[in-house]
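In the lab's daily routine, each protein ends up as an entry in a very long ledger. A line of letters takes care of the sequence, but it says nothing directly about the fold. The fold becomes a row of whole numbers, each drawn from a learned catalogue of backbone shapes. The protein below has been through that process, and both of its lines are reproduced in full:
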Amino acid sequence: MKPQLKLVSTQVATNTQPSVIEIQKGLRIKKRGQSSYWQVYIAIKGKKPIRESTGCADVEDAKKVALQKLAEIQYKLENNLPTEKRTFGNVAKAFIVDCERLVRIGDMKKATCTFYKQTINNYFIPFFEVEQKKKIEGIGRVAITQFQKWRIDNGKTFADGARCKPSSATLNKEETVLNRLLEFAIDNAYISQKPDIKKTKVVSNRHPHFTKKEFRKLVRKLRQFIEASPNGNIRKQRTLMYSAIVVLAKTGLRPHELLPDTDKKTKGLKWANIVFDTDKKTGKKYVKLEIVKLNSKTKERDVFAGATAYWHLKRLHEKADTRWLQIEKVFNSDFRRSFNTFLTWANMRTNAEGEKYCMYSLRHSFATWKIEEGVSIQQLAEVMGNSPNIIHKHYSHAMTANFKENFI
């Protein structure tokens, strides 16, 4: 039943006391001395009172708005809907606290919780809380679509000014975090329904490759980077990264085929899958890497590499503890952050066209060099674990670059 307007009492404003008008029991409007608008106060049994601005300077208009808000609150109470309006930031912080609780009881990985917190603090709060000033119930499909567009244009900016455009995989992981946050809001009655979140797909360009000249410069800079290490532990890790970079560039492996992952234990090459040998005819040293199937993007195959990769891996093998050689992985890190740090330090974060280098650029460099050397597409596809069609699609630039030289 619609509440009836019933004026109970009025307190006249003075210099020290604001005007207060009690419309009915549990409902009043109030104007503070410095404010132009009336505020409505609604008392709810067993809950914190609700206080909102009416947006009205006229007292009669403010009374009407107060009665409308009371009717809305009564409807929500009758239908077990949330009555409190909470900011996105407050709910996000409560969600982080809950994630930390799940870590303590073993129901969530610490790395997952860390990713949730970084995503919320770096992207969700800056957009929904700071830029949009959204209440949690105001996060609908329109707001999410606006966020998805904003997120693509607001990737991480590195020290040299290069901006990181997020991949579809990264955006989808972050959208999963938003989905979990909204589910948390439903479970705690902050919102009554959760909007659907459509996964973002980013059309990205092929990762840039290093020319042979650029890679020689990269190797020189890497040696300087190692020499500039502030202590022995950092020097050791940078030396390992140096070997990993060289092996990736000389084998064309996907980064996850060689390097481990904190969350996915199956990733990374083990010593048990490496064979050192010498060609009987030529006497050349070579290494065979036995790549096992880890996921849909990994094809089981043997990859052969010459002396450069051979000696890098051989030195690491000789230093490794013999008791663990059959079960341990070759490298202890994926070096992604360290590689980005190095590229920034070396002023090699992007190529001349402004495209950002990454670990995957080493695989593309290997493929480009081999095509330029005249290796057949079929052989290259076998070594890289791709189909010939994929090689044609991504490396046609290398095929046409030396087209003239192949025929004269």
The mean pLDDT is 83. The chain has 13 helices and eight strands. The chain has three domains: 9-78, 88-187, 212-401.
